[in-house]
Specification:
Helix 2 packs antiparallel against helix 3 and helix 3 packs antiparallel against helix 4. The protein is globular. The termini are far apart. The chain has 4 helices and no strands. By secondary structure, the chain is an all-alpha fold. It is a multi-pass membrane protein. This is Diacylglycerol kinase family protein. Its EC number is 2.7.1.-. Its main location: membrane.
């Protein structure tokens, strides 16, 4: 496919297929995606048990989605860096470490939001 051209461009539906294929591949091959999905399922179960309100559901869904998004982007960045070089390169390490740090930062933020949402649902705040 030529960038910026419609030649050999996949259909809109086929593009969804590629996205699903990428998600399935990430779940099958990446431990951290599995951990993030498990934590997301735990958050949903807690939300159901505590019967959180609509706004809280929005916050939980947003946090789960953003953390999964960040982990998928991190995985893609790591794959591209690994494709570019098989040897140790300080700049490659820097790119991978910074990408991982972005997931870590977002995960901490999501955890704080989760603590606030569920503490509120429990009447603690």
């Amino acid at each position: 496919m030529i960038p910026g051209s419609n030649k050999d461009h996949p259909s809109f539906i086929r593009s969804f297929g590629y996205a699903i294929e990428g998600f399935v591949t990430a779940v099958k091959t990446e431990r951290n995606i599995k951990v993030m999905l498990a934590m997301g399922v735990c958050a949903v179960i807690c939300g159901l048990v505590l019967q959180i309100d609509l706004l809280s559901w929005c916050l939980v869904a947003l946090c789960v989605g953003l953390v999964l998004f960040a982990e998928l982007v991190n995985t893609a960045i790591e794959a591209v860096v690994d494709l570019a070089t098989q040897e140790f390169q300080p700049l490659a390490k820097r790119a991978k470490d910074i990408a991982a740090a972005s997931v870590y930062t977002l995960s901490i933020t999501a955890a704080i939001v989760g603590i606030i949402v569920f503490a509120r649902a429990l009447g603690l705040v």
